[in-house]
Amino acid sequence: MNNDIPPSSDAKAAVNSSAPVSFYEKHRKVYIRDVKGWWNTWRWVFVWLTQILFYGAPWLVWNDRQAILFHLVERKFYLFGLVLWPQDVFYLAVLLIISAYALFLFTAVAGRLFCGYACPQTVYTEIFMWVENRVEGDRSARMKLDKASMSLRKFGLKAIKHAIWLLISLWTGFTLVAYFTPVRELLSALPFQLSGWELFWTFFYGGFCYMQAGFLREQVCKYMCPYARFQGVMFDPDTLVITYDPERGEPRGARKKGVDAKEAGQGDCVDCGLCVAVCPTGIDIRKGIQYECIGCGACIDACDPVMDKVGLPRGLIRYTTENALAKHFTPREVVGHVLRPRIILYSVILVLIIIATAWSLAVRVPLKVDVIRDRSVLAREADDGGIENVYNLKIMNTTEQDQRYRIAVSGLVGAQLIGDTEVDVQSAENHEITVVVRVPPDSGKKGANTVYFEVTAGSDARIAVNEKASFLMP
Question: Which tens digit of pLDDT belongs to each residue from 292-304?
Fold first, then answer.
């Protein structure tokens, strides 16, 4: 037998099939090259918008209080002139539904727009990379610095970079806590009078910001983010995504300027590798659609200037759909296919939910009343023979003005309130009052009877609540 004959491909496959397979790619640090362009400009526009909103909102003032505050201690949520109580948790559920439908709609139309432009991971990674570029230098300088042995210069640059990262992270954590504790109270409590949970969440959120934006970066998108995993089921061939045109670009290869690619048997791609160098997740868009792609458009900004330099039309990498790429759709045809039944259905549902929520908030009565019957005394007989029940009324004034409320009772013949029938409640406050209801002994049946407490604002009769309670007759 000739032992020099190389093994067949089937034999190689049999040997390799028994080899261990790794399901985790060894991490390679991604050195991202700085890029300028239309998509990069929009990315920074969203960085500024989201951060001005996030860092600035706790400082807004409305009626001498913080305009946006989810006050956990007082159990009240302030949204400018709107005051929500725990009983209004329905609106929180609606907000989550609206956010989910909006995410589904945007993803079905244009892919991972949220990931590429508004996701906190993307935004803070962009900010941290900007700091890194300004402190350590451009891509090649950072690569050289990391390969170099430790020196005073390297230590100093790394220390400055990490100090800035830590400051940003801690201020981010402090700002998050300021949405749940008034920001002025937090400032006055700095640095040693913060409560345990305020310190915990400041350092917890700040620590994760520092770790994920400074170190993990693309690994969060590739391995940790659930949205990256299930967003594929929301794509279809008519979803706008970042795509490379292989029909036009292949076979790729370097060439001199002015050389006709078709005559040389080459495609338009000059294989410069810039699209890979600027990708935040380190993927090669030329390998097709990949779940790691966050749709930021950096590869488009890198490719278009190269096409200009070699005298070729832009759009080798572009925002388009799979169908448009395969069937050579015109821009009008692309728009026509984007507006498909699925998108229309998502849009209609989203608009209906928003309209219904807005209507519900518009007609919402800014008054809440809880009636709790005193269970320590089921019923008692008064001096005149009448039957009395005792109730605790919790009256919640959700308006921005102090209110005086009138209390009345009905439901049983001759029912009357004993004691004060009016109560003053300050703006956005909760007031508890004990009332006694007396009825004639023959006005109801033995056992439980239904009565109604009517609470009405003296300044506006439209602000009124009618709450049902049970009245026990011996």
Answer: 899 999 999 999 9
> Looking at the domain assignment, is residue 66 inside a domain?
yes
Q: CA-CA distances (angstroms) from residue 205 to 109, 194, 337, 409?
A: 32, 16, 42, 51
Give CA separation, 341 vs 237, 338, 346, 445, in Å.
Answer: 14, 9, 9, 60
Count CB-CB contacts under 10 A for residue 354: 14
d(CA 312, CA 291): 29
- Kindly report the pTM of this predicted structure: 0.82
The whole domain housing 274 covers 236-328
Give the end of a domain, one of 232, 264, 290. 232
Considering the domain boundaries, does residue 21 fall inside one? no
Whether residue 16 has pLDDT greater than 70:
no
Q: Which structure tokens are listed for 162?
A: 């990490």
386, part of any domain: yes
Q: What is the 8-class DSSP label of residue 178?
A: T
Indicate whether 176 and 271 sit together in one domain: no
Report the DSSP pairing between strands 76-79 and 422-425: unpaired
| 210: number of Cβ within 10 Å | 22
What is the residue-wise DSSP string for 134-194? HHH-SHHHHHHHHHSPP-HHHHHHHHHHHHHHHHHHHHHHHHHHTTTS-HHHHHHHTTT--
How confident is the model over 336-364, as pLDDT tens digits?
A: 888 888 889 889 999 999 999 999 988 88
